[in-house]
Each structure stands twice: as C-alpha cells, then as structure tokens.
Amino acid sequence: MTSTNKPVALVTGAAGGIGRATALNLSRTHTVILVDRDQNQLEKSANLISEAGGSPAAFVADVTDLNSMQGVVRDGEAFLGPISAAIACAGIEVQGSVLDLTLEEWNRSLAVNLTGSFVTAKTTMKSLIASNGTFTAIASDAGTNGAQGYSAYVAAKHGVVGLIRCLALDFGPAGVRSNVICPGFVETPMARRLFAQSSEDEVQFYKSSVPLGRFAKPEEIAETVRHFVESTYANGNVYAIDGGATAGYFVGEPFQQTHVAS
Ligand SMILES: NC(=O)c1ccc[n+]([C@@H]2O[C@H](COP(=O)([O-])OP(=O)(O)OC[C@H]3O[C@@H](n4cnc5c(N)ncnc54)[C@H](O)[C@@H]3O)[C@@H](O)[C@H]2O)c1
User: Fold this and answer.
1) Given ligand 1 and candidates 10, 12, 18, 161, which is best to mutate, with the most ligand atoms within 8 Å of its CB?
2) Stretch 159-171: mean pLDDT, rounded?
3) Could you tell me the pTM of the whole model?
C-alpha cells in the first residue's frame, strides 16, 4: 500500500494504446507505475491519470534491459510502496515471412515481445510473492493462432503464452496469480500502423472475420486486465478477447433460424 492507501500496479507499454487505457483504468483503484521507452507519450499518459485524480510515477525504460527494469522497480517501490500487480503490455509489431525477415527483425520481436515479458516478471516476482499479487501479460490472438506474414510476432506471442503458463505453475503455490490476455485487433497506434500498410480489402477481411463485426477498443482490453488483477482464483488462463474471431470458422452470413421451438 502507498501513503494514499492504494495498492501499487506497474504497467509496461503505458504510453501506448492498451497500456495507457489499462493504466488509466487501474488508477481508479491503484497507484500506477508507468513504464515505456517513449517519453513524450508516457508524459501524456501520466498527465491523463493526474487529471483523473491519480498520482502516477512514470519511468522511461526499455523492457528488454534487465538493469533498467530493476532500477524502475527499486525506485518505484521506494517512492510508492510494494508492487502487487504487474502488467506486461509493451510490444512491437513485426511483419514478414521467414524469407522476408532479417535476423535483426526476428531477434527484435523476440526481445521486446517475449524477453520483455520475462524481464518484467523477473523484476517484479519477488514483490508479487510478498503481496500475494498478480501478473498479467498481453499476448495476442497470435499467441494461440498462426497469422500469415507474421512469423516473428506469432512465435514471440506463443512464447508469452508458454511463459505465463509456467509462471502460473511456478508461483501459484506462493499465492501469485498469472494470466495472459489474447486480444484480436484493437484500435491503437499499433493497429493503425499495420492497417496503414495494408490494403482496404485486407482490413475488411480482418473485420469481417470478427463475429461482433468490429475491432476492440483499448478500454475493453483494460477492463479485462482489471478482471484478472481483481480475481482471487484465476490462474494460468489464456483468455481470448477478440469478438469471437478465434472461436471457429466464420463465414460472415447472418444466422438463419430454421427451427423454432413450439
Ligand atoms: N493493437 C492490437 O491490435 C493488438 C492486438 C493484440 C495484441 N496486442 C498487444 O498489445 C500490446 C500493446 O499494444 P498496443 O496496440 O497498445 O500498441 P502501441 O504501439 O500503441 O503501444 C505499445 C507500447 O509499447 C512500447 N514499447 C515498445 N517497445 C518497448 C520497449 N522495448 N520498452 C518499453 N516500451 C516499449 C511503445 O513505446 C508503445 O508505447 C502489445 O504487446 C501488442 O503486441 C495489440
């Protein structure tokens, strides 16, 4: 607990679409440590939370850098108190098949998307054990399904799902609940960058493969993070929040009710 008597949550990628929405949401009940490498957007997130009545602490850091993240946790806890919820949200999009990808692009995807989650878990886990806390990672529907032209991203996100399952097994006995959230497309800067490189047909295809007929808003993902932060029994979940996109084959036809019970 902090001097404001609120528990402390750490959110990486807090300058981005989902991370900012998550930090804003959690700031209603938590004091939030914001982490991102993008200083300008990070300050904007901190200002939004302050305007909403919160008292965040913002740290510019790279989640792939163990020393930096150790420093964030040390200084953040010295300032605010022990962390009881950690959310690994920082991520990057990397496109290309194995023939297109350079080794650097492959390594960068694994470093940020997978190793970044490992480093976040490694640097916060002792605090989470001490507080019976929770660890939540944002993977993707690409963490459970393939995606054409995204091998480095898909491989890294599958790795995040595996990592979280192991955290659930390794630290569940110590009282820490670990879960991973797998969104489909979410309206964020990342999705906007991807769509800017895609044809209109491709974007329409992605949208039409969602039974709910639209992409998610970041606030909808943030509400799911809150669920896992607050749940006292959820552990080891791989939770799809994708409007039904990975529920099965979807041809897009409206459902026709042919048999009406009398
Ligand atoms: N937007 C989507 O459609 C979508 C879908 C599924 C999963 N996701 C995942 O959700 C998470 C958040 O994505 P988003 O859509 O909000 O993207 P975003 O690009 O809006 O935000 C990502 C944030 O991560 C930060 N970041 C990147 N590399 C970093 C590093 N090495 N160290 C610290 N910070 C770093 C960026 O600066 C940015 O602020 C990512 O892990 C992404 O893979 C996004």
Assistant:
1) 18
2) 98
3) 0.96
CB 13 within 8 A of CB 91: yes
Report how far residue 172's alpha carbon sits from residue 166's, in angstroms, rounded to the nearest whole number: 9
Residues 6+ apart with CB under 8 A from 137: 87, 88, 89, 117, 120, 160, 163, 164, 178, 179, 180, 181
Centre of ligand 1 to C-alpha 173, Å, is 30
Mean pLDDT of 203-215: 95
Q: Is 206 a catalytic residue?
A: no
**Measured between alpha carbons, how far is 107 from 160 in angstroms, rounded to an integer?**
15
Indicate if the pLDDT at residue 9 is higher than 90.
yes
Q: Report the candidate in 184, 180, 81 with the shortest Cα–Cα distance to residue 130.
A: 81
CA–CA distance, 83 with 185 (Å, rounded to integer): 29
Ligand 1 centroid to residue 17 C-alpha, Å? 7
| Tokens describing residue 199 | 């044809």
Instruction: Tell me if 97 sits within 8 A of 149, measured CB to CB.
Output: yes
Domains of the chain, start order: 8-187+217-240 (3.40.50.720)
What is the distance in A from the centroid of ligand 1 to the CA of 21?
Answer: 12
Report CA Rg, the chain: 19
Ligand 1 site, residue 188, Cβ cutoff 6 A: yes
Q: How many CB atoms within 10 Å of residue 232?
A: 9
The side-by-side arrangement of strands in the sheet containing 83-88 is 57-60, 31-36, 8-12, 83-88, 134-138, 177-183, 238-241
